[in-house]
C-alpha cells in the first residue's frame, strides 16, 4: 500500500479542520510535556514508524510492525500517542492519516533532559563529561561538538552574551 501524499498546505488546513471537528481528541493531544521515558516498547516502535514515514494510516503501521497485531491494537496505540501529544491526524474520507506533531529530536531532547535531571543533577556538562569519559563519543563526534560550541560562543558574543548560561533549562 502506498502512503498518501498531500501538499503541506492541504495537510495543515486539514489538520486545523480536524482540530475543530474532533476537539475532544485534538485538545487533549497538546500535552507536550509527557515524559518520553514512560512510552512503552510498542509505542516507541509505532512512533518510529510514523517519524520515518511522516504520514501514515493505521494499516500502514500494522504492515510495518515486526509482529502480528490486530488492527484495533494498532489504532489504540495511535490514539494514545495522539492523546500524549506525539501525533496528530487528518481525516481523508473515512481514513485517519497520522502525522508526527513533535520531531524525533525534540522528544529525544526531553528524554535526555530527564536523564540529566535524574543522574547529573540537571548539569548537561556532567552528562557530556560522562559521555567523553566513557568513550561513548567518537573523535569525529567530539570534533563536530567542538565546532558547534565554538559557533554558539561566537553567536553569544555577537548577541552581547544574552544566551542562557550554564547549559541548564
**Portion in beta strands:** 5-15%
| Biggest sheet overview | 2 strands, antiparallel
CATH superfamily of the largest domain: Winged helix-like DNA-binding domain superfamily/Winged helix DNA-binding domain
Cα-to-Cα separation, first versus last residue: 43 Å
Architecture of the largest domain, according to CATH? Orthogonal Bundle
Briefly say what this structure is:
The chain has about 170 residues and is mainly alpha-helical. The chain contains 8 helices and 2 strands, in the order H-H-H-H-H-E-E-H-H-H.
Structure description:
This protein has helices at residues 8-21, 23-28, 41-53, 58-64, 71-83, 104-120, 124-133, 139-158; strands at residues 87-92, 95-100. It is mainly alpha-helical and 169 residues long. It has two domains: 8-103, Arc Repressor Mutant, subunit A; 105-158. The protein has a two-stranded antiparallel sheet. β1 (87-92) and β2 (95-100) form a beta hairpin. The model is unreliable at 13-30 and 165-169 (pLDDT under 50).
Helix and strand layout, with pairings?
Elements: H1 8-21, H2 23-28, H3 41-53, H4 58-64, H5 71-83, E1 87-92, E2 95-100, H6 104-120, H7 124-133, H8 139-158
Antiparallel strand pairs: 1-2
Top keywords for this entry?
mainly alpha, 2 strands, two-stranded antiparallel ribbon, disordered C terminus, Arc Repressor Mutant, subunit A, 169 residues
